[in-house]
Design brief:
Length: 257
């Protein structure tokens, strides 16, 4: 019969003590680590390290950076972890000119605001005051006295708000290059058409057309002008059919008679 190896309790006591000591040390390290981590969190939130360090605004043209920052209600004093993308987007979309917003949080404590604006398709003139008109038909506050309409036509002699909204929708369909060629749009209703328009172009020509199918008909304008001689100026009648009448054509006809 094999002999059973007996370990005396006196021999086990040092090992038990060492095991307990290691266990106590691990527990101490755990508590100290937790304490220092908690301390770091407290220090972080109480220091400038938790604040937004940089705010970048892009995509805006008519709305200034300051307007966007003021409306967003964030600054370098804002806690980075308190920045809510959804709340900022909701605030900024209250700005009339803003069509959409995207917010991105980046390392280290950076916030990027990307804005898309409604296009200004025209400036409605009333008593020599210009009101920017957006592509959704909404009117903005009038321009200041030292500001002038840019990159969009002036719209005059309009009384029907519904027709004006239709005009805005048609203008937004036009390529930007053609919009820039229109200097002024005047509502000139006739006995044949209540929605007739007269356009004064930046190249000296005029266009007579209607609100209906406006964008479709105006898209052909560059190719129509390219067929003229450089010195030729006149009026394009864009309707069911297209007709061009030189400015001096009527005078020449009267002289022959």
């Amino acid at each position: 019969m094999d002999k059973v190896k007996v370990v005396k309790i006196e021999d086990r006591i040092p090992k038990l003590k060492e095991h307990r000591k290691q266990k106590a040390n691990r527990r101490l390290i755990y508590y100290l680590s937790f304490f220092f981590l908690l301390l770091l969190v407290v220090v972080y939130f109480q220091s400038d390290l938790s604040h937004v360090k940089k705010i970048t605004v892009s995509g805006n043209y008519f709305v200034t950076d300051n307007e966007i920052l003021e409306q967003s209600k964030i600054s370098t004093k804002t806690k980075y972890l308190n920045v809510s993308e959804d709340e900022i987007m909701e605030r900024l979309e209250d700005i009339s000119e803003v069509s959409s917003v995207s917010i991105q949080k980046k390392f280290f404590n950076q916030v990027v605001i990307k804005v898309s604006e409604f296009q200004r398709v025209g400036y409605f003139r009333k008593e020599n005051v210009y009101y920017p008109m957006l592509q959704n038909g909404k009117m903005l506050e009038p321009l200041k006295k030292n500001e002038r309409p840019v990159n969009a036509p002036v719209i005059v002699s309009w009384k029907d708000p519904e027709q004006l909204e239709m005009m805005a929708q048609e203008l937004q369909k036009l390529p930007e290059g053609i919009i820039h060629r229109i200097s002024e749009i005047t509502h000139t209703p006739s006995s044949n058409s209540s929605n007739q328009l007269t356009l004064f172009m930046t190249d000296g020509n005029k266009v007579v057309t209607t609100i209906s199918k406006f964008s479709e008909r105006l898209t052909a304008y560059p190719s129509l002008v390219s067929e003229l001689k450089p010195e030729e100026k006149g009026t394009f009648y864009l309707g069911i059919s297209t007709r061009f009448e030189r400015y001096n054509q009527v005078e020449e006809s009267n002289e022959k008679n």
